[in-house]
Amino acid sequence: MRHEVFDRWLTENRNVDYVMQNLKQANFDPEFYSRYEKEILTAYNNY
Amino acid sequence: MSTIQRDMSLTGQPPKSINTLQKLGTILGVAGLFIIVLAGFNVNFPNKGLWLSISLVSILAGVVLFTKGAYAHKMEGIKNDGVWFKSISSRGYLAWIAGIALTGFYIVLYFFAELLGLGVDGAANTGIVALFDPLSELLNGKQASQWFVYGTLYTVAILAFGYKFIRKYKHNRYEQLRTISVMFFQTAFAFMIPEIMARLNTDDFSLPYNDLKNMWPLNYYAFDQWRVDEFINAGTIGLAFLLFGVLSIFVVSPILTYKYGKRWYCSWVCGCGGLAETAGDSFRHLSDKSMSAWKVERWVIHSVLVFSVVMTTAVISTYLGYDPNKYWLTKDIFLIGVAVFLGVLFAVIWIFKRQELAKDARYGAIGYLVIVLSLIAIHYTSETTLFLFEAGKLRSFYGFLIGSIFSGVIGTGFYPIFGNRVWCRMGCPMAAILGMQQRLFSKFRITTNGGQCISCGNCSTYCEMGIDVRAYAQKGENIVRSSCVGCGVCSAVCPRGVLKLENDSMDGRINGNEILLGNDVDLMSLVNKK
């Protein structure tokens, strides 16, 4: 997870729902890795 | 796991010896090499095609089996077990044997090709070169040369060790794709396409051997007279190739380097880089990380660039001068053009990026510009002395010292002792150009999540260019270095995922001061808020 992005979210006092919606911005995997933000969001919403 | 581990370490122990599959792979691979050695001693193989095939397939299969033995039973992840203990990878006995053998092969290849069996003055080939005749006739219709042998072995090495690299780094998609790219460019562009195109050559129509991805200044003879003449005489397609060569230097490369950094070439396309990343992977940690190596590197590589520019300008202006009606360009216009281009480039960098250059870099740049412009002025005004040295002598000196010794003998022969990117780091003029653009005008950087860094030092150890990546990661600072080839291995061996190679806006790309370590939270005020 990209530290810059999370630091900004923490400073802005974002809640968990916002973070889960915008997880894509914080992606720090190397290039060409598979992305799983959609599945994470679905699992989170269905929990 | 075949052995029981009696210590409590999570990572396990490095293997004490190679396992059965690795032994089989070694036997097969060495047998393949042995066939070539026997051919070198003029052992007569009655069916050369068959024995050549057996040899090359054995080498490939040997490396594949060795790879399976090494990595198949292990989980994905960082695989540098025992690197500083194994003889081959820690400058041990095996490394010295390999280094001496490789260096010897290069010296013989460049300067004593008859020892390899090259037939001189129209005589048939013997020895090793003769063994490769069947493949050469199949591809380009002619007898093999020492360069064909070299090209074939080079391609086989990249394919075999590329497979090994892909299995070693199977946890990292970037490394797998990059290696496939390099294997493709070597096989298709450096080997198959030029060899098969040679079939098109007849008495009336002939194209020079053209590896499309091998551009000036890496290809120092790209604009030699014989080559330009052959392109011009080969009709539209020849001119198209010549134009492509020029465009790739002034259009394609700057655009791609701006968007992706120099990694698009050095790590995804270049043949030298291809061998370094695949066959040279076992030696990447041997690169010199010291400050003195860096100080030498930045002066030597830019000096080679100046030498290359001066040499090429001298060579081109000389033949433009001989035959003013044959070429579209005249000698005077060419020289003025080069001087204006270099002057404008210098001015642009000076005006916009002067503050990014260190003090000695500024003096060096001014000094070199003065030298080059004076040489051009001398050549423009006087007809007798050309660049103080005769262009032909300059060209052969460059070809010998830089093209053969630096790039071939030292660059590749010394892999097991000095690491895999000595040429790229210290000598390649193209690396100097692309690196300068990467540092001053590109979107590429390696972002670091500094707070996560545990200072293990893997990144610095496995950086083949000798960059102290850890120092940047500890501070959370972006890595923007002209020598960074974007191989991505630092990111692949980081146990915490601290490093990410990416392309993003140039604003704030070099961020020495605005670093984020998670230390800016005042814990007491946070606690007292409750």
Fold blueprint:
The complex is a heterodimer of chains A (47) and B (530).
Chain A: H1 3-11, H2 16-21, H3 37-46
Chain B: H1 20-40, H2 48-71, H3 93-111, H4 127-131, H5 133-140, H6 146-168, H7 173-197, H8 225-233, H9 235-260, H10 263-266, H11 271-278, H12 291-322, H13 331-353, H14 359-381, H15 391-413, H16 415-418, H17 422-426, H18 429-440, E1 444-448, H19 458-461, H20 469-475, H21 489-493, E2 499-503, H22 523-529
Antiparallel strand pairs in B: 1-2
Helix pairs in contact in B: 1-2, 2-6, 3-15, 6-7, 6-11, 7-11, 8-9, 12-13, 12-14, 12-15, 12-18, 13-14
Characterization of the model:
The complex is a heterodimer of chains A (47) and B (530). With 47 residues, chain A is mostly helical. Chain A has helices spanning 3-11, 16-21, 37-46. The model of chain A has no long low-confidence stretch (mean pLDDT 94). By secondary structure, chain B is mainly alpha-helical. In chain B, helix 1 (20-40) packs antiparallel against helix 2, helix 12 packs antiparallel against helix 15 (391-413) and helix 13 (331-353) runs antiparallel to helix 14. Chain B starts with 19 loop residues before the first helix and ends with a helix.
- Give the mean pLDDT of chain B: 92
**Dominant shape of chain A:** flat
Strand count of chain A = 0
Low-confidence stretches of chain B: none
* Number of distinct helices of chain A: 3
Rounded Rg of chain B: 25 Å
Main features:
heterodimer, A: 47 residues, mainly alpha, 3 helices, 53% helix, B: 530 residues, 2 strands
In short, what is this structure?
Chain A is an all-alpha fold. Chain B has a two-stranded antiparallel sheet.
